[in-house]
Design goal:
A hairpin with a 5-residue loop joins strand 1 and strand 2. The chain is α+β, with helices and mostly antiparallel strands. It has 3 helices and 3 strands. The chain has a single domain, classed as Factor Xa Inhibitor.
Length: 65
């Protein structure tokens, strides 16, 4: 049986925590930042966890992570 391939786009966007959960960055911090308040931009810097609803979908893309 051949090996499964890791989705390289997903591998760049997700990382594993010590407890086995998946960490992700928040959206809406790329452009059009002038109309967004400073507090909102500061909070978007923090990383977040992948929700339990999406966990199975992301794990399928990352079989070896």
């Amino acid at each position: 049986m051949p090996k499964m391939k890791t989705h390289s786009g997903a591998a760049k966007r997700f990382s594993k925590t010590g407890t086995g959960k998946l960490k992700r960055n928040k959206a809406n911090r790329q452009h059009i930042l002038t109309k967004k308040r400073t507090k909102r931009k500061r909070q978007l810097r923090q990383s977040d966890l992948v929700s339990s609803d999406d966990m199975a979908r992301v794990r399928r893309l990352l079989p070896y992570l």
